[in-house]
Amino acid sequence: MPYNVALIVGSLRKDSFNRKIANNFITVAPASLKCQIVEISDLSFFNQDIEATPPQPWVEFRNKIKASDAVVFFTPEYNRSVPGVLKNAIDVGSRPYGQNTFDGKPAAVISGSMGAIGGFGANHHLRQSLAYLHMPTMGQPEAYLGTLQNSFNEAGELNPKTKELLTNFANAFAAWVEKWAKR
Known about the structure:
- There is one protein chain.
- This protein has five helices and five strands, in the order E-H-E-H-E-H-E-H-E-H.
- The protein is an alpha/beta fold.
- The chain has a single domain (3-180), classed as Rossmann fold (3-Layer(aba) Sandwich), CATH 3.40.50.360.
- The chain has a five-stranded parallel β-sheet, with helices on both faces.
- Strand 1 (3-9), helix 1 (17-28) and strand 2 (33-37) form a beta-alpha-beta unit.
- Helix 1 crosses helix 5 (160-180) and helix 2 packs across helix 3 (84-94).
- The longest helix is centred in the C-terminal third of the chain and has 21 residues, at 160-180.
- The model has no long low-confidence stretch (mean pLDDT 96).
């Protein structure tokens, strides 16, 4: 039975490069991973005052994360860090205190940007949060995808070099999930 993997894309832009990477990840992931993008665009800003009666999008998001065996985060880099919408999704999914839906789930981070360093800052800022959330996060291989604007053809398909990198990453993540997932 395949592992359910939640893919969280930290960009809301319709033509997001990171969403394209996530969609391509789905196509190259081995059969042992059943991957699905979990949307974050409907999550209102986290506000502890409404935790007692959370909005329906919060409940749905938390339930999808609870139902997953693992999580892959796809993040662009905004000002050397993660986008606010991604941090907000993490806050919504990890609260209220003591009910962290991410707890113990194996994770991986793929960062991508139009710049040459491929979202290095965002990747490592995100890893800090994942360590606190008690998510065993795959260390190798790392995935910093630079100059993403040059990585796709007009149909949104990856160039061969980036596709190979993503395929190798997906295979390594499958082994990571097999080692760390709790069923």
